[in-house]
Write a structure and sequence with these properties.
The chain has about 250 residues and is an alpha/beta fold. It is about 50% helix and about 10% strand.
């Protein structure tokens, strides 16, 4: 698929708006209080259950399949957004899994494909999330989720993890028929919470989401649970931690 260069440059230019405003939003976590924290979906929900299932169904090939699946999933989302051919998270997740299995020459019976998709679409929260969310809310912070996942997936995950009511806003980028890092996606919490971007701490799970949030102008705490390297995209998070306890320490001191 050939990407329209004009569309790409337009999106990239829009994403840069507000970078300067956000760059100086914070220098250190000590003594600084935000009005709200917005989490990426996977900073709250653990994809580990699907990883274990993939390995059990394709012994020795699970990691390769997960990497190919994730890579193509985000590529399909971005390509569709740039090309004006939107398909939601469920569709792009399914299509990318089909492609990954063909790419790796793996037999993927339909029942196995549907099993993997069911688990992927029903995420469980990380075990450290509940207590930390309570502590942050007790400190007076408003909390929200901004995810490329469908709203129904997010609500279902919160219900099954006993986290319903923990967030002031549960936001899916499906609302704008696009995906992060579209700057319109990052603007959704600003509109929902009626706060400025400088008053909101964004907590991404992936390195590319760090870049998207910083380009938009959010102060950013990278929840780097996997110890991934920083992306070479010209920006850095304001702080990095491995889990929710690190986030608490950064925000509450």
């Amino acid at each position: 698929m050939e990407i329209n260069r004009r569309a790409f440059m337009s999106l990239a230019a829009a994403a840069a708006v507000g970078r300067a405003a956000g760059a100086a939003a914070l220098e250190t976590g000590h003594g600084i209080r935000f009005k709200a924290i917005v989490f990426d979906g996977f900073a709250v929900f653990n994809p580990g259950s699907v990883e274990a299932l993939v390995e059990s169904r394709f012994p020795g090939r699970g990691r390769a399949l997960m990497e190919a699946w994730r890579s193509r999933q985000f590529e399909y989302q971005w390509l569709r957004a740039l090309g004006g051919q939107y398909a939601d998270f469920r569709k792009t997740t399914e299509d990318s899994l089909k492609f990954a299995s063909v790419q790796l020459r793996l037999e993927m019976p339909d029942d196995t494909l549907q099993e993997l998709l069911r688990v992927y679409k029903r995420p469980d929260a990380w075990p450290d999330v509940g207590g930390s969310l309570s502590a942050l809310r007790s400190a007076g912070l408003r909390l929200a989720i901004l995810s490329n996942m469908n709203h129904a997936m997010l609500v279902d995950g919160l219900e099954r993890s006993a986290l319903t009511g923990s967030f002031d806003a549960v936001i899916s980028t499906d609302a704008i028929r696009s995906f992060k890092p579209d700057p319109r996606a990052y603007n959704l919490p600003v509109e929902a919470l009626k706060l400025s971007r400088e008053e909101i701490l964004f907590v991404p799970f992936a390195g590319w989401d760090v870049a998207g949030a910083r380009w938009f102008g959010y102060p950013t705490f990278w929840m780097n649970r996997s110890g991934a390297p920083l992306e070479y995209l010209g920006v850095k998070p304001d702080a990095v931690g491995a889990d929710m306890k690190d986030l608490q320490a950064f925000v509450l001191g």
